[in-house]
Amino acid sequence: MSKSKLPDLGKIHPEFFDRVIYPRLGVEDESVVMGPRHGVDYGVIRFGDRCLAMSSDPFFIMPEYGFSRAAWFAFHIVFCDVAVSGLTPRYLTIDLNLPPSITEAELEELWQVVHDESCKYGITILTGHTARYTGCNYPMVGGATTIAEGPVSDLRGPHLVKTGDSILITKGAAVEATGLLAAGFPKHFIKAGGEQFRKEAEDIFYKMSVMDDCIIARRFRGVRAMHDATECGIWGGLFEMARAGSFGLRIDKSSIPILPVVARTAELFDFDPFCAISEGTLIAIAAPEEAGDIVSAMNAEGIECAIVGEVLDNSEGMKIEENGSSVPLEHPKSDPYWRIAAELAGSD
Q1: What tens digit of pLDDT does each residue of 263-275 get?
Q2: Is the whole-model pTM more than 0.85?
Q3: Domain 158-344 maps to which CATH number in 3.30.1510.10, 2.40.50.140, 3.90.180.10, 3.90.650.10?
Q4: How far apart are CA 182 and CA 204, in angstroms?
Q5: What is the rounded CA–CA span in Å between residue 177 and residue 179?
C-alpha cells in the first residue's frame, strides 16, 4: 500500500493512524488513563478516584429516514462509544453545522428527539453550537462529544482482559448495515421480497444501539471490556479489541447470531455480514464464571446474546473456527456498506 493511499470511503486504515496520527498526539498528561488506540471507542481522564470517559463522533443526520428517526440514530451513535467504557453516560456537547436547506420545523423535530433521549438516559446537554452554513450538507451536520463519569472501579477496557475470558456478542452481525439499507433504499427490499421483507429489515433500525446492552453489562463486575461493532463489523471489532489488549482469541463462527433478515439482506446486496457495519452489536469480554448469567440477563430484556469464543494468550494469535477448520482473523480494512450505499444513492 502506498503511504499516501487512503480508503475511498469510511474510516482511515489502521496503518495510516499508526504512521501519521498516533505519533502526534500533543503533550503527554499523566491524568490520561487511556488515550487514542485501535479497538477502544473512548479516552479516559482520571481525577482522584473518579474518571471521565469521552468520545467524539460526527452528528449523522439522514433526512431520508425522517428527522425523528435520524435524530434517534445520531444520538445513539455518539453515546454508544462512551457507554462501552463501563462508566455512566452523563453529558453531551454538540456542534450543529446545519445545511441552509433545513427548516425550523425539521430542526425542532430533530432537537426534541435529542432532548427526549437525553431525559431517558439521564444525560445533560452541557454546551454546543448551532448554525446554518453554506457548504454544509447531510449527513455529517456537525459533531458531538459525549462524556461518561464514574469511579475508577467501574472503568472497563482491554487492559483488564485475562486469558480464558469468554467473548460474548449481542444481536449478531450486520445490524446497522441492514437497518440503514432498509431505511435508505426500501424499494430494493420490496422488489426482492415484498413489503414484509422491507418491514422486517426496517424494524432492525431501532436495534442500532448498545446503550441498553451496556446498562445490563454494567451490573456484572466480571465484564472486562466492551466494544460496539461499528465500522468493519464483528471481524473488525474483534481484531481491534485483541490488538488493543495484546491478546489472542478463538471464535466459533457458527455461534455468532445472524438474524434471518440480516442474512437475506447480505445475500441481496452481496456482502459479508461479518465485516459490515453493525452499530448495536456489543462485543463484550467477561469472566467465564459470569458469562452465562450475562447471556441470561440480556435475553431476559429481549436482547439476543451468545458466547462465541474465548480469549487466548497473545502468542496463539486470533483464530476463527468453522466446520472443523481454523483460519486467522484479519482486519477487513474496508466496510462494504459504504460502497453499497454509494452505488445505490439516487436509485431509490
Answers
A1: 999 999 999 999 9
A2: yes
A3: 3.90.650.10
A4: 9
A5: 6
